[in-house]
Amino acid sequence: MILTVTLNAALDVTYRVPTLAPGTEHRVEPGGTRAGGKGVNVARVLHALGHDTLVTGFAGGDTGRAIRAELDTAGIREALVDVDAPARRTVTIVSTEDGVATAFNEPGPRVSVEDWTRFVATYHSLATRAAVVVLAGSLPPGLPDHAYAQLIGATATPAILDTAGRPLVAGLAAHPRVVKPNAGELAAATGIDDPPAAARWLRERGAGAVVASLGPAGLLAVTGDGTWRVPCPEPVHGNPTGAGDACVAALAIGLAAGTPWPERLADAVALSAAAVAGPLAGDVDLDTYRRLAPRVEVLDAHADR
Ligand SMILES: Nc1ncnc2c1ncn2[C@@H]1O[C@H](COP(=O)(O)OP(=O)(O)OP(=O)(O)O)[C@@H](O)[C@H]1O
Ligand SMILES: [Mg+2]
Q1: Among 76, 70, 10, 49, CA closest to 248
Q2: Which domains does the chain have, with CATH numbers?
Q3: Could you identify which of 29, 62, 142, 283 might form a hypothetical disulfide with 110, taking C-beta atoms 3.0 to 4.6 angstroms apart as the criterion?
């Protein structure tokens, strides 16, 4: 089982309008309400591929109940921890004429010391049974920067960390097997603009491997086994939100199975591209995945060093 942790789970509401015009009234086409947050997106992709996955994190109040109900409908197993404060909502307005998405994200409820203690105990029992844990997304208000480090260090289960800023840097001390920053997160966390140098900086501080996602340019992986660049065989048009989460899902499958890095990375590039072709974050277009997977080339980038 692959356990995904979403400490700031959300109820994602999407509205569609022909064009978003500030200061005017819009009649919206309902675009759906779903459970969201990065770990939830990862679990959705794992579930679509038939992998056993379990979602945990916090989900309180009416929004928390709606998050659970939607996961149940989607057939995704969850062990979310109920708290008093309601889970956050996010609202995304998609202009159907140009595909531009505008997001409004609530910060999320403040986590109390008692809630955190209860969560850590639940996490410990779940993570002990997992093949891999994925910790993804920002920390909700109230949690210290080392919250992810505490979770990673609580069990020997290999961990993939996909977060940004201080929680990412603080998480390195607990030796996550893989970290997956995007280009902006990599530069911001390290203060280094050169992606290979920034990836080495993260490894020197405790990351087992760094898989940096560089948007349409694909992946740069700096691992103990080698350094690779993996471009996507063709650009895909669509919604790139959640492409990084699909990448993490592929990395989790590869880590659980012990797949060699080049194969794991090729799969991650094909699945991320399939997420761009999928309409909402957490959706993957399986035809795109199957079509691109055999065409991905993994380039040895040892010369970058
Ligand atoms: N237009 C595209 N065509 C093909 N592949 C893409 C495209 N955009 C992104 N990808 C793939 O998706 C991967 C992840 O994208 P990106 O670096 O934007 O992640 P991210 O910012 O972490 O995304 P998110 O956090 O929203 O899930 C890239 O490394 C690349 O392989
Ligand atoms: Mg991301």
Answers
A1: 49
A2: 2-7+37-78+109-304 (3.40.1190.20)
A3: 142
